[in-house]
Amino acid sequence: MGALPKAIRVILNLPEPRQQQTESRAPSEQGGTVQPGPAGGASAPGQVNPWVEAARRLEPADGPAVRGRGEGGPAARGTGGAGGRKGSEGDSGVPWNVHEETSGARFARRFGRGLLWTVVVLAAITGVRSWFFPDKPPPAPAPVVQAPPRYAEAQAQAVASRFARAYLTWSEDAVAQRESALSLDLAPGVDVRLGWDGKGAQRVEELYAGTVTVLKDGRARVRVEALVSGGAAPKAKAPARWIGLDVPVVQVGERIVVTGAPGTVALGRPSAPPAWEAPESDAEMSTRTKSVVDQFFRQYATGDPSAVAAPGVRIPPLPKGYGLVSVNSWAVDFAKGDDRTGTAVVTWSTSGGTVSQTYRVSITRVASAEAGRWQVSGLHGGAY
Questions:
Q1: What is the average per-residue pLDDT within 184-209?
Q2: Does this entry carry the keyword Cytoplasm (predicted)?
Q3: I need a surface site. Which of 199, 203, 258, 339 has the fewest CB within 10 A?
């Protein structure tokens, strides 16, 4: 018998298969008589009913003999031992054998049964859950959108600045020089005169590249701000003025080229910023540290601020041409701790006049074995 069927019977606690056996007895041993069957019918000659024989063997040795249905039948013999587990010598064996179940077999049976029921329960739960909560298909991956290549804004600003300087500079005595300068960045096939009639004079004093507005198909528009001056004659002088110039460009491969004539536009007026609320000032601390700030700005104007700065702090000196007139005001922000910040308004003398400027000054408390004092640890211009 195979091992797999036996293991399954142990797990499911199934009995061993019974094999019907017929026990034949000699006519001399049975007395030549026929034992009656359990239902009153006679068995075949020379055969014994296995169930009756089993019951006879299970009776105690001193118990009453098992009799057949018919009168005068031969008395059944007692079993060879108590409980009828084992017959005496010469008797035929019982149709089954009783085996004690070992602890290992008992554990295997219980463990296998529990494992089997666990699988069944999990399968049932999973199936029921799928009725009410069917598995959703995984979401489709998001489409990969490839970002367009970044526009070469720095190159566009450089090309537009060079072109604008050549375009805004003209003179009746230098027509060829202007056309040669324009051809460096102008697309082939465009008239290098770009609408100029060849008269008058103009020059560029200052020029700055501004915003690059990227359009489609590699095209863009570059705002250039220029300070120009000129007049009707080559030597004529006129007040300088700021103008805006929009230069059309296009990216062709790795090169930025100007596609045509630009257009002069007005510079936009600045918008009003949101109101800024100055921090609350600490009057007592402002009075205590006013002399420290005055001394610092005197040293700042003479070119040696490190002498009054906090240890380890290096503050570059003020450029030449400025002299201290006064520290108009000093207000320390209300706060706590040994590091504070305040606002100073200082008047400088320069180029024959005076100008008032605002600074944010950081101070820190430096303590020594003898005493403590406040010193400047940072400086930058502006109110915030």
A1: 92
A2: no
A3: 199
The answer on pLDDT for 106 being more than 90 is no
Residue type, 95: P
Residues 96 and 85 sit within 8 Å (Cβ to Cβ): no
DSSP letters, 227-274, are EEEEESSTT-----EEEEEEEEEEEETTEEEE-S--EEEPPPPPPPPP
Please check whether residue 58 is in contact with residue 83, taking contact to mean a CB–CB distance below 8 angstroms: yes
Q: What pLDDT does residue 228 have? A: 94
Q: What is the pLDDT of residues 188-200, one digit of tens each?
A: 999 998 989 989 8
Reported as type and span, the H/E element at residue 226 is strand 219-231
Strand order in the sheet with 339-350: 281-282, 323-333, 339-350, 353-367, 372-381
> Residue 254 and residue 380: Cα distance in Å, rounded?
41
Cα 373-376-380 angle, rounded to 5 deg: 160
pTM of the model: 0.54
Going from N- to C-terminal start, the domains of the chain cover: 1-13+102-131, 153-265, 281-381
What pLDDT shows up at residue 294? 94
CATH number of 153-265: 3.10.450.540
Alpha-carbon gap, residue 168 to 242, rounded angstroms: 12
Helices (H), the chain: 3-12, 27-30, 50-58, 103-132, 153-167, 175-182, 283-302
d(CA 122, CA 329): 82
Contact 35, 56 (CB under 8 A): no
pLDDT for the residue numbered 119: 77
Buried b (16+ CB within 10 A) or exposed e, 42-67: eeeebbbbbebbeebbebeeeeeebe
The CATH code of domain 281-381 reads 3.10.450.540
Whole-number percent of the chain with pLDDT over 70 = 73
Q: In this predicted model, what pLDDT tens digit does every residue of 123-149 receive, in sequence order?
A: 777 776 665 667 777 888 888 777 667
Rounded-to-10 torsion of CA 75, 77, 82, 85: -120
Amino acid symbol at 270: P
Distance CA 63, CA 78 (A): 7
